[in-house]
Amino acid sequence: MPNNTELFETLHADYYPMVNQMCLGFMKGNKALAQDLSQETFINTWRALDKFKGASSYKTWIYRITVNTCLKYIRDNKLKNQASIDEYTQLPDDSTDTEQEHQALYHAIGQLGEVDRLIIMMVLDELEYGEIAEVVGISEGNLRVKIHRIKKSLKKILV
Amino acid sequence: MSDLLDDLKNKWSDAKGGNPKHPSAEEVINLSKKKKKGAVNMHIGNIAILTITLIGISAFFIYVAPLQEILSHIGIALMTGGLLLRILIECYSTYRSTKLEISDSTAVSNEKFLKFYAYRKRIHGPVTISILVAYTIGFYILTPEFSTYFTTTQVVIMDLSYLLAAAIFGFSIRKGIKDEMRLLNEWKGLNEEIANG
């Protein structure tokens, strides 16, 4: 059985891209803020490692920590109403079409409410509805209603 | 609608590509330890400052100025009692903050944060204001006996200086309450968003 440090190294290596992308979506494509937020998420993961009971998979557990860290981070850092993350992050002129497409996706997700933003990112990550409901702490029925409404909002944003 | 979702899923998966540059696991662990140490030192520092103030005031009234009148004893009790209460609250707040769990589900974690910030708002608001009022009353109750040992000018300077210090402290309480109110309202809003969407 690996010790905590070895286990953390594995989790960090396996889940950093997933966490960072969620943070990017939450921070509307702002890479610097997303990197800081990802780091904060893994600091919280390291601190909570002793309390992991194995009731869910590590993936679901890290999603929970990521979601809670995102929601806490913008409040602690007074970023909720700041223009820095609300504004569309400008890409350099030489950015590729693909980069601009990704940025547009983060921007569209960024226009949703905080919780909706996190839910749709887990949907896009192909997490099971049951797992998303467990992460957020709502019933699966309630989650389905929310997802339906989020999809409609996204359609409006993207048209 | 499912076409839109499939398209978004493809774009999302495509955007994930690569492993962005980031600190190593070891660096994150070291940073975590450093941050924890900083937070613990901050709490210990606050408690130490309050404790030293309490010891200083107590020593002053025991060894330097052992006031005799009952009214003065009540004043000293209000001042030291208020400080002692503040120290106990600080210790309890530190303990409560360690009980916040970031790996709970969002709804549960949010509920805990909401309760914590409601508690903090009470502490920074009515409780701290009451302690300041008690301390102020205690301080001014000492004036009659002080005036028998000091000149009127010295007593007036002392009383006015206290007023200035209390005003500065009052402004800092006001700022604290405003911050706690903002956080509390934001967590409440989030709670509603989770429950009702």
Automatic annotation (TrEMBL), chain A:
**Could you read off the lineage of the organism from its UniProt record?**
Bacteria, Pseudomonadati, Bacteroidota, Cytophagia, Cytophagales
Q: What is this protein called?
A: RNA polymerase sigma-70 factor, ECF subfamily
Q: Which GO terms describe its biological process?
A: DNA-templated transcription initiation
**Record-linked InterPro entries:** RNA_pol_sigma-70-like, RNA_pol_sigma-70_dom, RNA_pol_sigma70_r2, RNA_pol_sigma70_r4_t2, RNA_pol_sigma_r2, RNA_pol_sigma_r3/r4-like, WH-like_DNA-bd_sf
PANTHER family documented for this protein? RNA POLYMERASE ECF-TYPE SIGMA FACTO (PTHR43133), RNA POLYMERASE ECF-TYPE SIGMA FACTOR (PTHR43133:SF45)
Looking at the keywords, is Hydrolase present?
no
**Superkingdom of this entry's organism?**
Bacteria
- Gene Ontology molecular-function annotations: DNA binding; sigma factor activity
The Swiss-Prot or TrEMBL record describes its family as follows: Belongs to the sigma-70 factor family. ECF subfamily.
RNA polymerase sigma-70 region domain location: 13-78
Report the Pfam families cross-referenced here. Answer: Sigma70_r2, Sigma70_r4_2
Q: Which residues form the RNA polymerase sigma factor 70 region 4 type domain?
A: 103-154
User: Which UniProt keywords are given for this protein, alphabetically ordered?
Assistant: Sigma factor, Transcription, Transcription regulation
Automatic annotation (TrEMBL), chain B:
Q: Which UniProt keywords apply?
A: Membrane, Transmembrane, Transmembrane helix
Q: Per its UniProt entry, which superkingdom is the organism in?
A: Bacteria
Q: Where is the signal peptide?
A: none
Please note every region of biased composition (Basic and acidic residues): 1-14
| Keyword Cell inner membrane carried by entry | no
Chain ranges passing through the membrane? 44-64, 70-89, 123-143, 155-173
Question: Is Transcription regulation one of the keywords?
Answer: no
Q: Which stretches does the entry tag as region Disordered? A: 1-25
Designated name of the protein: DUF3278 domain-containing protein
